Amino acid sequence: GKKSLRQKAVDELKHYYNGFHLLWTDTKVAARMVWRLLHGQVLTRRERRRLLRTCADLFRLVPFLVFVIVPFMELLLPVFLKLFPEMLPSTFETESKKEEKQKKKLNAKLELAKFLRETIVEMAKRNKADTG
């Protein structure tokens, strides 16, 4: 059914609360990783990617906080997210946005695979014509 305006507002507040909570948790984990790096330990590839993602999220948080702090500027947030889709930290993304991003990546990979397959077929035809 349709949600009331109050329920939509509560859902948005919960979404942002959960996003900030996840970002705080990621920041604590990243701080431990930096501590380990400073003491000469080596990070795994997975840890390094998580550290980079968390640092990027912290840098993205600065313009995002302007929208949260300035009164009524959050009404412009959808416009800016449309213009700059990567502005929002990754912990604030909804499941639908994540799925949409994965679909785009998959379509790009499929197009690349199709192109490579056609290229190989064309090369095989040329090689066959050259030898035959």
UniProtKB/TrEMBL annotation:
> What are the GO cellular component annotations?
mitochondrial inner membrane
Would the keyword Magnesium be found if you checked this record's keyword annotation? no
Parts forming coiled coils: none
Q: What gene makes this protein?
A: Letm1_0
The chain positions of domain Letm1 RBD read 43-128
Q: What is this protein called?
A: LETM1 protein
Question: Can you tell which superkingdom this protein's organism belongs to?
Answer: Eukaryota
**The entry's keywords:** Membrane, Mitochondrion, Mitochondrion inner membrane, Transmembrane, Transmembrane helix
Q: Where are the transmembrane segments?
A: 58-81
GO MF: ribosome binding
**InterPro entries given for it?**
LETM1-like_RBD, LETM1/MDM38-like
Q: What is the lineage of its organism?
A: Eukaryota, Metazoa, Chordata, Craniata, Vertebrata
Gene Ontology BP term (one): intracellular monoatomic cation homeostasis
Membrane-topology descriptor: Single-pass membrane protein
**Where does the record say this protein resides?**
Mitochondrion inner membrane
Q: Name one Pfam family in it.
A: LETM1_RBD
